[in-house]
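Researcher: Structure prediction, please.
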Amino acid sequence: MDSTTSTSELIAASTLLFRVGEHLYGCDIGDAQEIISLRPMTRLPGAPPFVRGLINLRGTIVTILDLGLRLDATRAPISDGSILLVRYRDRLVGLLVDQVADVRVLEVEPHDGGATAGTAAGEGHGGIVRGVATCGEEAVVMLDLETMFKQVLLS
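Model: Predicted structure follows.
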């Protein structure tokens, strides 16, 4: 470890990597339950644009969130991607991403609330950044999915 990283502790984590636009994001592999292909959704009237709708997955109603629109409201909705299914409390939630990329063990530098992690992906993300890591030469923004779900879904 060099002198620039000695002040903060790096945490090794098994990470699911996925792309949203040009950026590489990650979450703890333990957060992911299943990955499914994009399918038709039933839109919820009055819901924010990033709440793309509901699907019926084997008898379970799943709310689908467009991660691209959640992170950047000016971008077009994801029209060809994958749905990452995540368990949040007692419900299943789907995150629509452009592409699921890989699973890797990465050393994550916890986010301290400064601008560095948010600007690594283009702008701040409203407190949902857990940390940053690198995969090869590319920066990975580690998302705190639980915090995002608390912000988006009624608790």
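Model: The radius of gyration is 16 Å.
Researcher: Thanks, that helps.
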